[in-house]
Design a protein that fits this description.
Blueprint (H helix, E strand, L loop, with lengths): L2 H20 L4 H37 L6 H25 L11 E7 L3 H22 L2 E9 L5 E9 L3 H5 L4 E7 L10 E11 L13 E6 L15 E6 L4 E5 L5 H27 L16 E6 L4 E4 L4 E3 L2 H5 L4 H19 L1
Parallel strand pairs: 4-9
Antiparallel strand pairs: 1-3, 1-5, 2-3, 4-5, 6-7, 7-8, 9-10, 10-11
Helix pairs in contact: 1-2, 2-3
């Protein structure tokens, strides 16, 4: 189907939905039609702008033959020849297949990988970086689990980031983040390299993932010292094992066993939902590895070099010399570039 025909069909569908809504449909049909119209109205508005620009371009071209109007027409054409392709590009992006999880909130998981104590320290700094980024975006950042080390590093950090479109902006952060710097514990000034894994999972509702209670093994135990925010004398910590998949979630952040179980189930649902999404994507013949990464936790995606003050994203060859600001949560330059690269890759695949 041609691009122009796609636009015509979307505009016609919007007219059809408006007619349905004014004809007095009720109940679930009304809700469904309203939601569909709300989803496509921004695209329809852009189509209207494109059509108006195309008409103006055609009119300006007819005016070129008039000596008195030629200069005005040429000026208008210069502007329209920039505007029309921009509008067409925006519409092509708007028509790309949507990731069903994009509008969801997300679960962020951060763990040190290679590098011992230094990896734990950097994991804590990355956790703080994403917390600050969430604050800059106006998102809610709730710590579900935070296991710290004696040196102030992080053993494991899990947070729920709530807001519209959180997953769309953070999904390309999954992977291995590498730090190069002189650790505070290094006496000879040598630069060490350490790594931290980041996973961003779309938050799942109960309707997304069916979990049979019979498939769960639930163990309760006493919260430990370092690694638990609270140390108490009751068996409040919870470990849930989903036997069919082998996924294990342990939670001891809360004093209440009930609260720990609820948080653990939230993380378990997110991990199972992401596992289902990954499995589905792998089986699709049309699914291609994106140039901006697969979301695999073993894929090295970014390097933070403190001596040189630079942060480099290896997927898009983007290096910024503002490491202090990046660590303060100013991630939009990377995230916007990653989203643009993903869109360009998918547009090329559509052609």
């Amino acid at each position: 189907m041609s691009f122009a025909l796609k636009l015509d069909r979307i505009a016609a569908r919007a007219d059809e939905l408006r007619a349905m809504l004014t004809e007095g449909i009720t109940g679930e049909a009304y809700v469904k039609a309203s939601r569909e119209l709300s989803d496509i109205e921004p695209v329809v508005a852009r189509i209207g702008e494109l059509r108006a620009a195309e008409r103006a371009q055609a009119e300006a071209e007819t005016m070129l033959g008039d000596p008195e109007m030629r200069e005005l027409a040429e000026a208008e054409l210069r502007a329209l020849k920039e505007q029309v392709p921009e509008l067409q590009h925006e519409l092509r992006i708007a028509l790309l297949p949507k990731d069903a999880a994009d509008e969801r909130s997300a679960i962020l998981e951060i763990r040190p990988a290679a590098g011992g104590d230094e990896a734990g320290l950097f994991a804590a700094e990355l956790f703080g970086m994403y917390q600050r980024y969430a604050a800059l975006r106006g998102w809610r950042f709730e710590i579900l689990e935070y296991g710290d080390t004696e040196l102030g590093g992080l053993k494991e950090g899990i947070a729920e980031i709530t807001g519209r479109g959180v997953f769309a902006r953070l999904k390309f952060e999954s992977g291995v983040h590498r730090v190069q710097r002189v650790p505070a514990t290094e006496n000879q000034g040598r630069i060490h390299t350490s790594t931290v894994t980041v996973a961003v999972l779309p938050e799942a509702e109960e309707v997304d993932v069916q979990i049979d209670e019979g498939d769960l093994r639930i163990d309760v135990y006493r919260a430990s010292g370092a690694g638990g925010q609270h140390v108490n004398k009751t068996d409040s910590a919870v470990r849930i094992t989903h036997i069919p998949t082998g996924i294990v979630v342990a939670m001891q952040e809360e004093r209440s066993q009930h609260k720990n179980r609820a948080k653990a189930m939230k993380i378990l649902r997110a991990r199972m939902y992401e596992q289902q999404r990954s499995s589905l994507a792998a089986t699709r013949a049309a699914d291609r590895k994106s140039q901006v990464g697969t979301g695999d936790r073993s894929e090295r995606i970014r390097t933070y070099n403190f001596p040189q003050g630079r942060v480099s994203d290896h997927r898009i060859n983007l290096t910024l010399y503002k490491i202090d600001r990046v660590m303060q949560g100013e991630l939009d330059a990377f995230i916007d570039a990653l989203i643009a690269e993903d869109q360009a890759t998918r547009l090329a695949a559509e052609e």
